[in-house]
Amino acid sequence: MTKPKITVISLGGTISMVKGTTGVTPGLNADDLIAAAPGIDEIAILTAESRPPVGSSDLSLPEIFSVAQRVVELAASGDADGVVITQGTDTLEETSFLMDLLLDPPIPVVMMGAMRHPLSTSPDGAGNLANAVRLAADPRVGKRFSDLGVMVVMLDQAWAAVDVAKANSHRIDAFTAPETGPVAVFVEDRCRLVSFPDRAWKRAVQRFDFLNQVKVEALTTKPVAIAQMSLGEAGGSLAAMAEDDDMFGYHGMVISALGGGHVPARVVPALVALLARMPVVISGRMGSGYLLQKTYEVPGSEIDLVARGFSYAGRLPPIKARLLLALMLASDIPRAEIETLWLDLN
User: pLDDT tens digits, residue range 276-313?
Assistant: First the structure.
């Protein structure tokens, strides 16, 4: 049987680290990573593509946009049956969701990284890469990739990009999907699909065709901020932003809200002033669970904020709601349509 063609695109991160002066620094490319995973060439015909290696904290929205464009090129040319993207784990839950927002899956796309660098005891990068290639090369995934979307592989599990979260700063089992669990597990060098994610959110956003509608420069010139709510928050920075002529350079705001979508009552006037000037989306700071819509009616609660015209992000956590709002702003989507989409996600 002919082996599938898988392209490995490396972006840097912990998996790419080499010895530096006082620590480790990005240095390995895609060829190096493939060479460090014995037997990986038995799974698929591999092609390596390398971009300048950086920590994922230095990746940008335009950079990930260009990677998505490359995936489409590889699929259209027939040069790849699947793509594996290696990067750092700091922003992996964000970049994978951004890729899923941009791509109407032409071929399987799997993203992965490592929690232990190659010079550490028992590094995990080679095993994660081998499993990512297995997943991208699996014929069942190829047939049903539109039902799976972009996936993230770490430590013998795979998760849907919309659900995955980095839940620990340093442990090898840092990744999880608290609301849904994995879509696949790896047992004895085999990929076993165990569930399929809810793709209703994807069907809701597909009409915007972000990959063809986004003005790439606007991903930088129309940034979206995140404001964290917490005990005793007074909203001073939000009020200052609303009063600033340039709104500190921001074009949208995501509120990382308390509980089921709540803010302190004292913050509401600043948020109302901000809403008059930019889209403001309420998301949940805990990172899992749907926000409420019609339970609490005290000032700053969901009934109050919905009545005032604020949008709610459904089950999207703040860092993912920010990416969706950024794409809508960069596509010049009218504000009324932006608000309608958020309604569709609840």
Answer: 999 999 999 998 999 999 999 999 999 999 999 999 99
Do 5-198 and 220-344 show the same overall fold?
yes
In 10 A of CB 222, how many CB atoms?
20
- Is the pTM higher than 0.90? yes
Rounded mean pLDDT of 8-19?
97
Lookup: tokens for 309: 């015209």
Q: Domain 220-344 carries which CATH code? A: 3.40.50.40
Say if CB 266 and CB 235 are below 8 A apart. Answer: yes
CB atoms within 10 A of CB 335: 11
**pLDDT at residue 197 above 90?**
yes
Which residue spans within the chain are E strands per DSSP? 5-12, 17-19, 24-26, 45-54, 82-86, 109-112, 151-154, 157-160, 165-166, 175-176, 184-187, 190-193, 224-228, 252-257, 280-284, 311-312
The CATH topology of domain 5-198 is Rossmann fold (3.40.50)
